[in-house]
Every structure is written in structure tokens, then in C-alpha cells.
Description:
Oligomer: heterodimer
Distance between the termini of chain A: 10 Å
Radius of gyration of chain A: 24 Å
Strand content of chain B: 15-25%
Largest sheet of chain B: 8 strands, mixed
Distance between the termini of chain B: 47 Å
Number of helices of chain B: 14
Amino acid sequence: MFRRFIVRRVLLGVLVLWLVTLGTFCMFFVAPGDPARTLAGRQATEEQVALIRHDLGLDQPILVQYGSYMNRLIHGDLGQSYFNGESVGTLLAGDLPPTASLVLGGAVLWLAVGVSAGVLSATRARSLLDRTLTLVALGGVSMPTFVVGLLLLYLLFFQLTKAGWPIFPPDSYVPLTAGPWEWARHLILPWVTLATVQAAVYLRLTRGSMLDVLGDDYVRTARAKGVPERRVIYRHGLRAALTPVVTQLGVDIGTLIGGVVVTESVFGLGGIGQAVVQAFVSGDLPVIMGVVLIASGAVVVANLAVDIAYGLLDARVRLA
Amino acid sequence: MSLLDVRDLHVSFPTTDGLVQAVRGLSFSVDAGHTLAIVGESGSGKTVSTQAILGLTPDADISGRALFEGVDLLQLTQEQLRRLRGAEISVIFQDPLTSLHPLYKIGWQIAELILVHDDSATKKQARERAIELLGLVGIPHPAKRVDDYPHQFSGGMRQRAMIAMALALNPKLIVADEPTTALDATVQAQILDLIGRLQREFDIALILITHDLGVVADVADEVLVMYAGRPVERADRRTIYYRPHHPYTKGLLESLPGSTGARKGRLTPIPGQPPSLIAVPSGCAFHPRCRYAMPVCSAEQPPLAHVTGDLPDHASACWLPHEAVGLGEHAEEIRLEISGREPDAVSDQESRRGRAAG
């Protein structure tokens, strides 16, 4: 039963991805400007423009273009950048690891901090601790990412290094292959930056969900059964309260893959977000398309993971 | 000595609107193997009183005594109470759908109760005991159904599973809090039969909390009627049915379909609403809804006193004379004469209803 559930979700994901490719294909035709003319430059003659148009296959009927476009996609070819002729695939393959490292590592951090603070807050509702955490969370949510990032850079990189403690490195990304310690050391500040805002959101989410669940009848049953309070809170309460957290996590990881521009820029990590900003500024349609595909692929995969997690968390979901 | 002896229990909850006096002086006792039914409307304090004794109302101010086998439950620490809950005293709740954890298998939930109380039990033993218990409460194919989730059970089966859980460690006392209210009428009788049968088989004392005097009819040894946090009448089951003294008990009986009290095919509801527990009416809390109310009723709170007669255990908290027991015409004449009402008091009831509602 669970396998059928997963197969259905995977098929749904494939359908969504196909719709996205259809969308990006249409983007070519609604996007302002003529790519051939852009590429050819201002001085180009009509013949040169026509030649480029022919090279790109833009003079073919739409259906033929769509066919070759899908054909290339299925073979993993995302096309070439208009500007330097580099393969979009190779270009983005270099950008994905920093972004994925940043988002996934950050997610571990914000989940650990946000969920445990949320549980603390909910089990001591209206206490001084709860109010303090609420205030801190409000601060975290309200602070723009770049402020957090720059503050961290100033305090933990600049001031520490000046004081002769160069613990945290400055900008740039070091691949995992260079050793996990170096990789993590270069990512700590970006992770904290990303997690500051997110953890605040997860704290509030977990707190609210826990407060709901702790008032439910089955929690009262657990207490009436003589289950120790810690176990009541974690095994009975948190387990049930995690559903909205898992949903939010799927959405966040999916969208952040294409949208951690600010954190990436502050720390000069490179990454998908920066690539897409550059591509938009220069109107490099194939790169934009590639990013859109990767980002939506991330959303689809994250949602699939959420669905599977639901199925594992809650037996009732498998029937749906 | 009684198994559970509750004396002068008070439970209140501080709220922003004021102090909610949920229980205002409740005393009762249950003997081993016996059944006490606590009857009353919503908000009469019947559920709160038992939950407070078991330490399930963390926000409440509680005073009084609740001796369980001679030990005052209200003096125990949370940890001591926890060890008692589920093992010595277990609870069956009203709605088995919401009372069972939706994300865990039925068998797991029963086994958990065994495992948290008995360190020597293995998971395998606990699971086997769960299967045995499910069979005991009449679940077909228990070895298979033990791995079902609550949503795979019907309403009646879920309540059977709750009962199985309550029985797991051979408790001395089970508190059944409206155990049949959320169930289909056809299933209600089955569940009551099951509870009664298991109670006799294992010699367990039972506190049956209900708003429905009809549920009480076959099961209870003794009945305690509560109104606005206080006991208003206490007697054995037969006396409550045939010779009630308190007008509230009488009202409950008359609002019961097909009961001795109801006139042919017509139910007589009790007018008005239960009172607010923040501002409880003066004197007898029932006086605004009582058709026999006299001046003394709003001025002074009647004590729970023995009703004269050959039944020493029949007590009632009402200013009406003690001859006025039962549902017969003679008793009605006495009540009307004392309270100065006309026999046909419909219009009077109407006006009172308006007053109670306003």
C-alpha cells in the first residue's frame, strides 16, 4: 500500500516537472527581446542575426523546436549560455554544491534550534522563558538576512581576526572534497545567518503546533496511562506536532535552493541564487531556464520527501 | 474501609474571568468491586472531580482528601501519582477516536502502558499481553488486529481497545468517563455489558460518570447526582429511580424517554441552563430552575441530609420535607403545598425559564 502511495507521488512529481518545462519553453516566446539580436550585438547586420537565429534553431516551427528542446532535456542537456557558449549544465553543476550545502546544513541547524526551542516554549507556555524566546524569535524574523550576515561577518570574522583569533574564515566556498572540516568551517557563518531567520519561524510553528497537540485527548490518555511526562511530551506530543513542521521544511528547502541569493552574496559563496540574478540581469535565457528547472526539481523532490515522511509519520496518509 | 474515600473535595480554576468553582464540597466513597455512578449535566463537576484526584488537572486549586487504600492521593507527588495511574486506577474516556493516539498502533498503545509501569516486562511479553487483552474485550482476530491503527477500528472496537488498555495491569479501580456517550445506541449496551462483565470477573471497583440516568440503570450499585459542583442526592440505584427526593433528580428522570417518570409519550425537560460556575446562585444552586423553589432555597444552602425512612444511605440536599419522595401524586401534592405552587404550573415554569435564561 505504501509503495503504491509513493509511486503515485513520483508520477505526480514527474507531471509537475513536465509542466514546468512547458512553462520555461513558452518563456522563450513571451520574453521580451530577440535572443538572436541580443547575441549578435548592436553592430550586426540582418544576415548575421539571421545566421545566429538559424544556428539556435529559432527559425523552425514551434512544434519542431519543442521536440528538439524536450529531446535535449531528456538527455540532460540544458543548452548553452547565450553569452559565453558554456553548457548550462556544467555552469550550474558548479553552483549547486555551495547552495545545497548552505541550505541543507542550515536546515539541520534551524530545525535543531527551532524545534527544541519551540517544545521548550510550548511546555512552559506563558513562562518567562517562553516570553523571552518569543521576543528573540521576533527579533530573528524581523532582521533582514543581510544584516544578520554582515553582523556575523563583522563580529566573528573581522573582530576575532583582528584580535588574533582567526577562527572563522572570510568569504568563499570550499568543496566537501577538500575535507569536511574545512568545508564546514567556511559554511558556519552562512549557516548561522540562514538559520537565524528560519529557526525563529520554526520556533513559532512548533510552539503553536505543540500547544494544540498537548491539549488533545490522546495526550490526556497518555498521562492517565501513567506515561512519564517527558515521554508524553516527546513520544506522544511532538510526534503528532511535527506534521506542519515537516510541511514547512519541504517548502523551505525546495524554495531556498533557488532563493538564498542574499546569504550567498554576503558570503561570496557563488551558488544558484547568484547565478540566476546574473542571468536575469543579462537576459541569459538558457541559464534562467536551467535554474528554473533545477529549482522546481528541488521543490518537487522536497515535496516528495515530505509526502514520504508523512506516510512514515502517519498511517492514515497512506490511504489517501 | 472503602477503596476510595473522597471527603469535602473542592476544585477551582483561576481564570481571567474569575474563579471557576468546578467542585464545591464533594464527598463519596467506593468499595472494592462496587460501582458508583456519578450523574449530572455538563459542568456539574463530575469529570473534573475524578481528574483532579488523579492529578490530571495541573492548573487547578484542589483541597480536601481522597484516600485510596488509606493513602491521600492529594498529598502524593506527581511521580507517585503517575505510578498509580494506569496501574492501580485506570481511566476510560468518552471519545475513543480522539482518546487513542492516531499515529500509533493499538497494540503499541496497550503495550506502552504495560512497559512504563513494569520494568521487568519485555516488549514481546507486553505485545502478547496486548493480544490477550484485545481477545478478552471481544476483538475478533486479536493477533492480527493488534497491529491496526485506531482509524482502522470501528467506534465500538476502539472503546473496547480503551477498555483493554484500562484492564492491562489489573487495576483496583476504573474511572469510566461517559464511556458510551460517543457511541451508537446499539453499541452502547454492548460496551456497558462488557464493562459490567469484566468488572465482576476481575472484581474491580468502577466509577461510572454519565449524564444519562438510563445508562446507570443496569450497572450502578450506588448513584450520586451532582449539580453545579455539589452532590444533591445520593442513594442506591432503586431508590434513585423509584423514590427520588431532590427535584433535580426527579427532573432528570422525567426527561428520560420511556422512564418511570415520563408521562405517556411526553418528556418534561428541566427548564433553563446549568448555572455559571464563576457566579454560582445563592442558596441551593438549583433554585432558579426549580419549580418548587421557596424563599429559603435562595437564602440558605441545604445540607446533604439523610432522607427519613428505612434507607440510611439515602441522602438529599433539598429543603422539601423528607416525606416528599418519589414520583407519585401524594409526593407531588406535598411538594406543591409546601412551595405554594398551583398544580398546573406551566405558565409559572415558562416565566421561570425566561428568568433563568436571562
